[in-house]
Each structure stands twice: as structure tokens, then as C-alpha cells.
Amino acid sequence: MRKDWDTYFMDIAYMVSTRSRCPRRHVGAVLVQGKKLLGTAYNGAPMGVPDCEEAGCMIAEEYELKIIDGREEMVKKQRCVRTIHAEQNLLLFTDRNDREGSIVYVTDQPCWTCANMLANSGVVEIVYHRPYPKDSEKVITMMEHKGITFRHLAGYQPPNDTVMSVSN
């Protein structure tokens, strides 16, 4: 049976994610214009720099004030700052003209920083599979404000041997 386009392009994003050497999360992203694949990227250290597998993760802790059940709470987030995110690499290695009106398929819901970058990149739609609850609400709100279609492929099943267990 022939796969639908969402499944086809998300499968490719998961295959791309297998190039990542991040021990915490493998993320892949693809840029699509019409039905044409224009670029792929995954998360990792800059080219020529030791990655997390070789040099260890560089974890930075951040705190964010959130309202949870009507109360203000400080929420701690941990992020690896050695790694360039898949979405960032995709934007670095594709042309602005190619991004105008295009779709990004990404294995994981973009974080706040990547969502900001994608919001200014010219893409009109972002399709993701795994949720990222730490930034979800504010990312969804921003995408609605920008008029960018933001879709979660909830029932999607990645190809065998492409998924690692995710640590937050």
C-alpha cells in the first residue's frame, strides 16, 4: 500500500535523525516545497567540533515562570548547548527562496528558539510527531498568531530502528 505524503516525509525525517549522535534525543527535519524534498538536517555539534558522544553534553539549566492551575511556578528546564537543533541546521543549510511557502516535517515539536526561527523563515506549515511539553503552549500560541499551520501527527508510527528513547 502506498504511504500518504505526511507519512512519507515524516519517515524521511526519522531516517535523517539516525545521523544524530546526541545521547539525549535524535531529531530530524526535512524541508518540502509542494511534494519536492529540498533539504534535510539533524541535531548535533557544529561540523568539526567534538559532539556529545565524544565530549559529553553541555547542559545549561534555565528557569521559566509558568502559571499552573492558576498559580505561578518556576519550572526548571535543562538544555544541551553543545548541540545545534535540527530545525536550526535546516535553516542554515537551505535557501530563503526555497523556504517561502514550504513545509517543515520534524520528528519533535520545535522548542521556543526553533519555533521563533521557523516563524521568520518563510515556512507556512510545521508538522511534528513527538510533543515537547516544556514549550508547547507558547509555541502553539505564536504559530496561531503568525498564521503558520502547526500539526501534530499523533497516530504516526516511525519506521523500525529509527527511534531512540527520549530523555527530557
UniProtKB/TrEMBL annotation:
Q: Which Gene3D superfamilies match?
A: Cytidine Deaminase, domain 2
Record's keyword annotation contains Glycoprotein: no
Give a GO biological-process term: pyrimidine nucleotide metabolic process
- Gene Ontology terms for molecular function: dCMP deaminase activity; zinc ion binding
Names of the cofactor(s): Zn(2+)
Give the residues the record marks as binding Zn(2+).
85, 111, 114
Q: Where is the active site?
A: 87
Tell me which domain of life the UniProt entry assigns to the organism this sequence originates from.
Answer: Bacteria
Q: Which GO terms describe its cellular component?
A: cytoplasm
What Pfam families does this protein's entry cite? Answer: dCMP_cyt_deam_1
The record's PROSITE patterns line, in alphabetical order, gives:
CYT_DCMP_DEAMINASES_1, CYT_DCMP_DEAMINASES_2
Q: Where is the CMP/dCMP-type deaminase domain?
A: 4-150
Which keywords fit this entry according to its UniProt record?
Answer: Hydrolase, Metal-binding, Zinc
- What protein family is recorded? Belongs to the cytidine and deoxycytidylate deaminase family.
Q: Under what name is this protein listed? A: CMP deaminase
Organism of origin is Paenibacillus selenitireducens
